[in-house]
Amino acid sequence: MKRYVLTRCAKWLGIFLLAGGVIFYILQLAPPDPSQCVLAKPVIYLYPETPQETRVNVVLTAGTFTVTEPALQDGWQVMAYPDGTLVDEEGNTWPYLFWEADSQGEFQFEEGFVVPGNETGAFLEKALAIQGLNEKERQDFLEYWLPLMEKNPYNQIAFQQEEYTSLAALTIDPAPDTLIRVFMAWRGLDEPVEMKEQVLTPVSRQGYTAVEWGGTQVQ
After folding, report:
1. Which of 10, 164, 178, 191 could form a disulfide with 183 if both were Cys (CB 3.0 to 4.6 A apart)?
2. Which backbone phi and psi does 34 adopt, to 5 degrees?
3. What's the rounded Cα separation, in Å, for the pair 94 and 149?
4. Residues 157 and 184: beta-carbon distance below 8 Å
5. CA atoms within 13 A on the CB side of 70
6. Tell me: the pLDDT tens digits for 166-211?
7. What distance in Å separates the CA atoms of residue 55 and residue 75, rounded to the nearest whole number?
8. What angle, rounded to 10 degrees, do the helices at 120-130 and 135-149 form?
């Protein structure tokens, strides 16, 4: 009897393990959730007209921060200077505030651009300038993103507005006269696709200016 019970247990254990293995295999084959995304390297620059204490906060509507520099508590408290220098409460100097997050969001690709990989740098220089980024900010952007993009045959690029700002609310106190938030969603392509060209709105920087840029690579 004991041998019979053990045999039955072993049989059911084998079926259970086999079923578990099949389920695991199916899950491995399942396509990734398209809503999963990384909000990669949003950085925030502040340019007040005179040195001033400034409080900055980013609140995610979905997702979790993976990196923040300086460490984000219930916001960043910094002394901001006209040249963009930021000094935190511990006396550390920063060129910008930095954060990244895992989130969930759907990004629009109804309008945008399809750019050959070897022309991506020149395209981004022009597109970012239109949207108000200065030379240093553009170079910081390209330093991070261009190595990931320029070797692709083509890149599909769409700059996001509400799709991004609805995921990450930015508050700055005192409020800037000009706020620029540029967020790029992109994916590499082997072949070009048809796409309606996105109209980029020119931005003029007036008075106390805050700038944020970031992006996400969509699979």
Report:
1. 164
2. -65, -15
3. 27
4. yes
5. 20
6. 999 999 999 999 999 999 999 999 999 999 999 999 999 999 999 9
7. 7
8. 150
Mean pLDDT of 127-141: 98
Exposed, middle or buried by CB within 10 Å (0-12, 13-18, 19+), for 143?
Answer: exposed
Mean pLDDT for the chain overall: 88
Average pLDDT over residues 135-159: 98
Q: Please give the Cα distance from 46 to 94 (Å, whole number).
A: 11
Stretch 45-51: mean pLDDT: 98
Q: Which residue has the tokens 């293995």?
A: 21
Type of residue numbered 164:
Y
Residues facing 189 on adjacent strands: 154
Name the nearest CA neighbour of 164 among 215, 102, 218: 215
Q: Are the C-beta atoms of residues 170 and 60 closer than 8 Å to each other?
A: no
What does 81-126 look like in DSSP terms, one character per residue? Answer: -TTS-EEETTS-EESSEEEEEEEE-----SEEEEEEGGGHHHHHHH
